[in-house]
Every structure is written in C-alpha cells, then in structure tokens.
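Recall that a protein's primary structure is simply its ordered list of amino acids. Everything else, from secondary elements to tertiary packing, is in principle encoded there. The following example makes that idea concrete.
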Amino acid sequence: MTNIIILIVEDNKLNSQLICESLDRMGYSKNHVVDNFNSALEFVDKTPPDLILMDIMLKGLKDGVSIAIQIQLKHDIPIIYITGYAKDNIIERVKDTNPYAFIKKPFKYEELKANVQIALSKHKSLKQKDKERLEYEQAFSNMHCGAITTDMNGSVLFINKIAELLTGFKSDEVKNLKFEDVFQITNGSYNSRKLIKETIQKGTVHKFKEDIKIKSKKGSEITLEIKSSIVSDKDNNLITIFFWEKAKNEKRELFATKSNRYSTLKNEKINIMVVGDNSILRKGILSHIESDHSIDICYETTTKLEILECCYSKAICLAILLDDSLEPDAIFETINFIKNELSYLKILVLYPESDNNKELKMMEHAVNGVVSYKDNNVNILLAIHSILSGDLWFRREILNQYVKQKNSLIDVKIKNNDILDLFNEMEKKVVIYVSRGYRNKEIALKMSRAEATVKMHLSNIYKKLNIRSRTELISYINSSLQ
C-alpha cells in the first residue's frame, strides 16, 4: 500500500490538507498536491501516479475536466472527482472522461476510502485483463488454422489471420458483430447459433462430425472441418471456434493444420529450386519432395548464374540449399548472394547434423529455416510449407538463444550509440522496444502506459527523425548500428 502514488489536484489549501490527512490515515503516504493545469501535466509526465483525485473548479483558464482529458490522451490513470459543483453541464463533461467515482464536497472519510480502494482495485484488474487478452490474441494469431473467439452470447471478440482469409472479414470489422454475421453456414442441420449452443453444452473441446460449408464475405463457398472449445478467461468463459479447409486428399489434410495452406488456397503449384553440387544428395532430396504434388521442382542448380537464370525464367519462391554439398564458406556466400540479388526468395538449408553455432549463424544471415536431410519426408515437407506461410523453421532452443543474443546486442549497441541523444527517457525506451520487434500494445504493457501514449511518443520520434513510419524507424536504427 505504501508504494501507491496519489496525485491531488486541488487549489484550496484546506481541502488539499484534509484529503492528504485522510489518505495518510488510509496508509497512502506517497501523495503529491498540485493546484493548476501545467503543474498537473508536468507531474504526471515525470511520475505517473496510480490514482488522481481531481477538483473541477480551479484557478486559471483550465479546469479539472480539461486536465483529465489531456492526461487521458497520454496515460491510463484512474481519476476520482472531488468537487463542490454538480451542475448538469459539468456532469455531462465529466461523463466523457469515464471517471472511477464522483464525490461531492464536503466528503466523508468512509466514502473517500471506499472509492479510492475500489478505483485502485478495479484499475489493477482491468490492466491484468488487458494483458491476458493480449497474450490470448497472440497465442491464437500464430495458429495454423482459423480461430474466432466470442463471448458466451456469441459476440465476436477476436479473429485470427487465417479466419480473416477464409471468411473475408478483417479483424477491425468484426468487433461489434455476432458470430452468425461472420460465420455464415449454408448447409446441413447446423446454423451458427446452434454451433455456439452445442459448444456451451459440451463444455470441452468438441469436434463436429458434419463438415460445414460457409459463405465468405465475397460470396464464395468453402467446406470446413470444425472444432470448438470453452476457454476460461479468469472472470469470463470464452468460446473459440477452430476451423480449417476440408482437405482434398491426405497430403492436403496434413498441411491444412501445419501451414497457411499456401498452395491449397491459391490452388497453384509451388515453384522451388534445389541448390547444391552433390547430384546424389540432390536426387535423394527430390525423392522426398516430389511426393507432394503441390510442389514443382523447377531447377537443380550449382552456380550463381544458374540461380539467377532459374529465378528470372520462373516464379521461384523457395531455394533449398544443401549444406553438405557446398564448401564451408560457400553456403554463406550463396545465402548473401540470394539475399542481395533476390531478396524476396525464401531459403531453407538442409544440413547433415545439428550444429548450434552454424544454425545461429544461419539465423544471422536471415535464413528462413534449417532441417536435417536425414529427417523423414513429412518433416521436410512441413518445413517447406511453414516457411512459405511466413514462419521460421528452427529448433526452439536455437530460436530462444538467437532472440536473447540479438536483444542483448541491440540494447548494448543502441545505448552506446549516439542515436538516442535526440530523445527523452520515454522515447528512448520506445526506440529500444521497437528495435526488439514489440508492437504498440506490447510496448504499452512493458512500460505500464496507455497504447495512446506509445503512439504519441512514436509520433514525436518520427518528427525528430523526419520519417513517417515504423519501418523507416527500424531501418534508421539498423543503419545507425552498422
């Protein structure tokens, strides 16, 4: 309780003294008093409090409601109004700031105590919910099947990228829609409401026996297989519907849940080339890959000129490099050549034995994945389809080690570089988190700030660097660290 910081915005010394004494009595000793617009904003920017007790009628042109509006543009801080004024026009303005309580002077100690404790508890709970919801969305956004999450009444809360692709609805379009508006079933005995109802009745992971056809936003019909589940969110239960396109054959069925259905949805061949000067090894790898009819082996190449000719003559999307058949330094030379000349091309390296140092080096050279050519054909094919769907294919320990090293190196370089001299302390933190690849929501959670605050800092950073986007900022950071 002693770590709670409370800001009191009050221009009457007697009132501010009474409030401070009441807070001390409750056990909140870290309180600070200001009496005007500028002092309040300055304190909040330097030391964001856990709670603000706000008088409305203050000396000067700006009143307490104006201060609250300005603070909420940058910070997520609960506000309780303590005022002697309760006219209708003031109440209407106060409502727009979503206060946690409105206390009329003269206040009673018990009333103030109850509202302070409720506000602090409620805000803590909301922040925890935001964090859990973000983690929940991140988990489902990376799944290789469609996922739509609703509340128990069927209102859509979240839709992942593959669900967007299959239904035709974007995530920002579904927030106020019912499940049946997004997931429009056109066949069988099921409808969207019955699907939700049956999920609630089963209460666990439930696979529907009947294949279901839905009509996408664009009007096309897709046949789906569906599972559903009730997921607990501490205070609430959520329903998640998982679905994937009905596989046309066993091979497609395997990849439907393991990839973004790169070829299944586009209904076209995947053009790849195999690079390596060991013809026996090339033939062995080809025998693995050719079992998947969605893949077309366009070329077997050994030289840089052949790689260019191959890519210029056909729409190649993946290069498979055979590590064992190239000279030790030659493979990295080939990787650099492809990245410089054919930056769009994805790279999968096949190697004979696990080698942590070499795999880390592969990641540093922006390779998309590595796999042992001693693996069975299913694992090699899964690697190919996962990479083409935008994923990386490395062992988990390698990914963790790489991220740890990279973040540490970037932090050290940034802190030792004069690129941070332009920014204030908050902007420096934002730059470092952006360099690590965090999104605005994640940065807001890390810094315990509102997402709007992060966006404001980014806007200031862009102005100082005369740039317009996050991509340009990352490019600036990378070029400054060379």
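The first helix runs from residue 13 to 26. The two ends are 47 Å apart (CA to CA).
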